[in-house]
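hey so i finally got around to running the thing on that chain from the lab meeting. sorry it took forever, my laptop kept dying and i had to restart like 3 times. anyway pasting the input first so we r on the same page abt which one it is
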Amino acid sequence: MGKPTGFMDYKRETSVSEAPLERIRNFNEFHTPLSKEEQQIQGARCMNCGVPFCQAGMNIMGMTSGCPLHNLVPEWNDLVYTGNWEQAYNRLKKTNNFPEFTSRVCPALCEAACTCGHWGDAVTCKENEHGIIENAYEQGYAKAKPPRVRTGKKVAVIGSGPAGLAVADQLNKRGHLVTVYERDDRVGGLLMYGIPNMKLEKWVIDRKVTIMKEEGITFVTNTNIGKDVKAAKLLKEYDRVVLACGAKNPRDIKAPGRDAKGIYFAVDFLKATTKSLLDSELKDNQYISAKGKRVVIIGGGDTGNDCVGTSIRHGAASVTQLEMMPKAPDTRAENNPWPEWPKVCKTDYGQEEAIAVFGHDPRIYQTTVKEFLKDKNGNLCGLVTVKLESKKDEKTGRMMMAEVPGSEQKMDADLVLIAAGFLGAENYIANAFGVDLNARTNVATAEGAYATNVKNVFTAGDMHRGQSLVVWAIREGREAAREVDESLMGYSYLSVQ
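ok and heres what got predicted. didnt touch it at all, straight out
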């Protein structure tokens, strides 16, 4: 699609990011989008390739290549190029319930698989998506469209993260009566409290939730199912229940001194900051402050990076990020060819800001914590790190990261944030409904299905597949909704892709 020679005629242009030293003064999104005219030129770069890997969403060498939602990327790139913005929105919404979210927080699997990226710069698919959805709101295309007919069937969705919202949106479009339960005070789950404001401002979520309410979905906040409301009550009141509670068990670091004061899970740190920001612009001081502290973040993923950016905005004295794995190469290796996901070193916004503020990359690779140090009052004052190396486990034959003897070092620290990932579903909600868990502590279902071992109870998202991307949560929500619909009506015309 696009202009046949567009990828040769035009260079890739992206939104302009505010300079690191400027953007750390607040928690706002910091990208200035391209104009509609500039965006159309970027749409022209889509090269009408014979096999559009951008929309494939296939597994290659253990990693996803292309969009898991199978977004019709070439189609809406062409429509952007020709200025048909309304039809571009219609084609985008056919596969993606929430482009306002994915165009901000998705790592752009589509662009990594773009044919243009095979030898040059990929098409700006993610920013084209952002242009489409924001224009749709401006022009009124994205307004509420309530279903014309109701089925009379009632469905309860537990959890309002991207999977739960996708389930609710799809089933409501079908005409079912949907109620979404959320234990926090605001709707959005991971989107609201797991992703910092500078990546996804919360008015974006509120805008979409308002439309969903206008379309007939009921949201109940501050209600913890399994504690505040018994599971049996929901199973009696609703025809179906969908569990979309996420993977909320943070992986801990079991080392001596773990009980020191000043060690927190990253998710608690990020949530407290966002809630205080929304409640009072941080004036209530009801958050874990990094101001003036020597911060050490354990974990090199997206959550760890979010902690880096947040700590800097607090005014941390220093920020260090420990990463267990070796540093990825700066350029794609020969054994990592396109269209595989590029296993290259990524310097994200938080690391960029740390470099600007402190003069160096905050990441220390192949390193973990061996001991937490505390003073006589039990406060964290430092830690002992140890270097790691890749070795083969003699019992399993698998490669593992093992300590390097004699590589221990002391490091000063006042605040430690553990961003080591999540282990699976929380036991209390699983036990409340009596659903089985698999070996990874996710809710168990048959392969490719979403029905649990409990009659009329389904699951979707991270609670089902484990910690993953927002785009995968939406995909699972759409698939689960179709399965729920089939169980209610005997058939379904809900689209998955």
